[in-house]
Amino acid sequence: MSDSLPDNMVPFLLMASFRGLIDDLHHRLAENGFGGVRAIHGMAMQAIGAGCTTTELARRLGVSKQAAAKTIQSLTALDLIATSTNPHDRRERRISSTVRGAAMLAESGRILTDIVRTWRDSLGDDAIDETIRTLASVNHGRRSLTDVSDWT
Amino acid sequence: MSDSLPDNMVPFLLMASFRGLIDDLHHRLAENGFGGVRAIHGMAMQAIGAGCTTTELARRLGVSKQAAAKTIQSLTALDLIATSTNPHDRRERRISSTVRGAAMLAESGRILTDIVRTWRDSLGDDAIDETIRTLASVNHGRRSLTDVSDWT
DNA sequence: CCAATTAGTCAATACGGTTGACTATATGGT
DNA sequence: ACCATATAGTCAACCGTATTGACTAATTGG
Lengths: 152, 152
Fold this sequence. Notes:
Number of helices of chain A: 6
Radius of gyration of chain A: 18 Å
Structural class of chain A: mainly alpha
Order of helices and strands of chain A: HHEHHEEHH
Largest sheet of chain A: 3 strands, antiparallel
Oligomer: homodimer
């Protein structure tokens, strides 16, 4: 722990941190009845929030509407969302979270907060707060946090 | 910037930071004669380091050897690596960086260091050092930093 | 010397992304 | 009121990168 990693390792550090966090999250979600949920599903659920349309989800995720439609199919199959038509504009598919979907999001939030709490316990609030502030600053003016385009 | 994001947004922050950094990197790599290089290629080049075999690369990346073999094909097509057979064990394919591959890795390192330098300029060395230390601690004891398995 | 191990490839499949072409619905100018 | 245009969403074809299972070739060791 003495020496810091060189600056050119920062992307690996960010990726590994993300991966580790997501792995823990999915492990614990599976233990709580939400098996089969993948990273993309959680991202999409977060992006859907209180509800939106296919096109709007595509915009929020930064992907094509065809890709968003496929994600919507997966989420529907997992009983996390349901779709309905908007009577005022019958072209639209309104997407909204199911009870199970809302429970999954709430559980995700609890688990993530709990994981970060373990970081706080071992490294201190100051270090974690500073890290979050720094990462938030680095992302200022970038695309939305839920943008997953080209992330492979 | 006043309020910090809640702890359950940390994964989004990590992913967006990684994505932003990689996007910048690839944009600048393309400007310097290394177009067509994708995130997976840079990861693999880093993992290959001084050279290894297909199976060893698979282990370092945390993927199947079939997947590693495909990555090796891509890197070979990009003239970043070359393979040869080991005369002492003719089952093995030795992988080593080409001159161009080494130049790409060096250029990546320079660009990444330069990007992080802009962070240091605007946020201060203390904030960046603390962030790197924190992320490194969070990853202690986890799989190798070059592990890309299931990152989708 | 032959059985077991190890390195790597081939083939089929899955998943999530893309573009292009399409249908259905809504909107707005003349 | 009508028709041109714009918008919401789907279908089909394809790409890239992963997977597993079955395989060949080379090495090792009892």
